[in-house]
Write a structure and sequence with these properties.
single chain; alpha/beta; Rossmann fold; 8 helices; 10 strands; disordered C terminus
Length: about 300
């Protein structure tokens, strides 16, 4: 393999935009390094939220480029973002992606001061299948008691392998719905794994101890019902949950991976939700309560 670039090399603006990013390698023990794209840099004189981001793609597709829209919105919201190029099914079925995710999260936590500042808090985030992986890694971090998480951000998450909710039927997802069913099939070739909480967080029996959660979905999101059901279960378990429900057309989750998504009507709404949620990291800890927000008809004006 070619020489691993330094994670702390200066980041340069790419694609003609103002947002700086650089592709890097993350060493994870004796295994192959994981490729990641780091957005933003450590701010001077303060700390920033440090977010591990998982792209969508039904577990079998996608990469750093398709995840750029959501990762970029997180960075614009004030975070330093490490977007992970995790191993894909069918070559790497469950639990390869979440084990890689937890290894990357552990590495991020170890180096958080140099990445995002001395007081940086660590978060996970993802859209579609990436939302599943973010939720699973949060459960894994809880169970392994490391690393500590400030919160999780789940955007149009793909949580239920049954692929049978009313929102999926109503959306007439067509070939896309088949893609999700096929994705689950390739991710979970052993049907018994569908009951594992790390594979399908919607089936997790114990949700206590999960960090505060921002869950974002939309009226036209085929994954809406499983997202809202997970939010209810988290809230019932005493987890502090913020919901953002967009009533405007979004085209989610497919639109999340399109470059044009960064300029879509929903983008500034999502960025504002990210920013408000991340800023709460420095607020005093609160007794877990139900916190819900609704957005309707918005129109936008190598370290070792």
């Amino acid at each position: 393999m070619s020489t691993t670039p330094s994670l702390l090399a200066p980041l340069a603006p790419r694609l003609g935009g103002a947002l700086a990013w650089a592709d890097q390698w993350i060493p994870v023990g004796a295994g192959e390094p994981l490729k990641a794209r780091v957005y933003g840099s450590r701010p001077r004189g303060r700390s920033a939220p440090l977010v591990l981001h998982f792209h969508g793609g039904a577990f079998v597709a996608g990469g750093l480029d398709s995840g750029a829209t959501v990762a970029g919105l997180l960075a614009e919201a004030g975070a330093v973002v490490v977007s992970l190029d995790y191993p894909l099914a069918p070559a790497h079925p469950f639990p390869a992606a979440i084990e890689a995710g937890h290894a990357a999260l552990t590495w991020m936590h170890r180096h958080r001061s140099r990445l995002a500042g001395q007081s940086a808090t660590v978060w996970v985030a993802g859209e579609e299948a990436g939302g599943n992986l973010a939720a699973a890694v949060a459960l894994m971090a809880r169970d392994r008691r490391s690393p500590p998480l400030a919160g999780q951000i789940l955007m149009s998450p793909m949580l239920d392998p049954c692929v049978a909710t009313a929102s999926l039927r109503d959306a007439d997802a067509g070939p896309v719905g088949c893609l999700w069913a096929d994705g689950w099939h390739h991710y979970l070739p052993d049907a018994a794994d569908a009951d594992h909480p790390y594979a399908a967080p919607a089936s997790a029996m114990r949700l206590t101890g999960v960090p505060r959660t921002l869950l974002i979905t939309a009226q036209d999101d085929p994954l809406r019902d499983e997202a809202l059901a997970y939010a209810r279960r988290l809230r019932d378990a005493g987890v502090e949950v913020d919901e953002a429900f967009l009533d405007q057309p979004t085209g989610w989750p497919c639109a999340c991976k399109q470059p044009a998504g960064a300029k879509a009507a929903w983008a500034p709404v999502v960025r504002a939700q990210f920013q408000a949620f991340l800023q709460r990291a420095h607020a005093p800890a609160a007794v877990p309560v139900s916190a819900s927000s609704s957005i309707q008809n918005h129109r936008p004006g190598s370290l070792s």
